[in-house]
């Protein structure tokens, strides 16, 4: 009955105000300090409130390690492992690139791979045309 891992998909609303971003970051940090592993999927480019992306905003609350997104890959996937030590596995990616699989840690070094590209494409392929048109 204990939560060991959470997947968070960032939405534009998570970044549209200082309060929204702060709330999202605090929730993520609270999960990590509560020993809940975390996978963050941020398919939106950095904005004025997260100029180096959501991972840096979260990780700055955990450590002083520097982090900078590559200019040509400004979307972020971040898998956080809480045990034995808090560790972040970050994969910057770009629009049009294949979304890499990411680990979702369950306990210590035990994880499952989350097939993000496959999941996205499987969902896209069954999405009604009327909804697809809203994306473009």
Describe this structure as you would to a colleague.
The protein is an alpha+beta fold and 136 residues long. 30% of the residues lie in helices and 26% in strands. It is built from four helices and six strands; from the N terminus they run βαβαββββαα. The strands form two sheets. A four-stranded mixed β-sheet has the order 1-2-3-4, with helices on one face. The protein has a two-stranded antiparallel sheet with strand order 5-6. Strand 1, helix 1 and strand 2 form a beta-alpha-beta unit. The longest helix has 16 residues, at 18-33. It is globular, with a radius of gyration of 15 Å. The N and C termini lie far apart (41 Å). The relative contact order is 0.14. The mean pLDDT is 95.
Which structural traits does this protein have?
two-stranded antiparallel ribbon; 136 residues; 4-stranded mixed beta sheet
């Amino acid at each position: 009955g204990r939560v060991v891992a959470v997947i968070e998909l960032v939405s534009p609303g998570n970044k549209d105000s200082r309060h929204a971003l702060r709330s999202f970051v605090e929730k993520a940090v609270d999960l990590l300090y509560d020993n809940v592993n975390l996978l963050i999927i941020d398919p939106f480019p950095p904005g004025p409130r997260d100029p180096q992306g959501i991972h840096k905003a979260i990780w700055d609350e955990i450590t002083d390690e520097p982090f900078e997104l590559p200019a040509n890959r400004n979307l972020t996937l971040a898998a956080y492992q809480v045990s034995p030590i808090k560790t972040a596995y970050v994969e910057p990616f770009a629009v049009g690139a294949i979304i890499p699989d990411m680990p979702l840690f369950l306990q210590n070094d035990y994880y499952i791979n989350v097939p993000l590209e496959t999941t996205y494409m499987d969902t896209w392929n069954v999405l009604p045309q009327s909804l697809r048109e809203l994306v473009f």
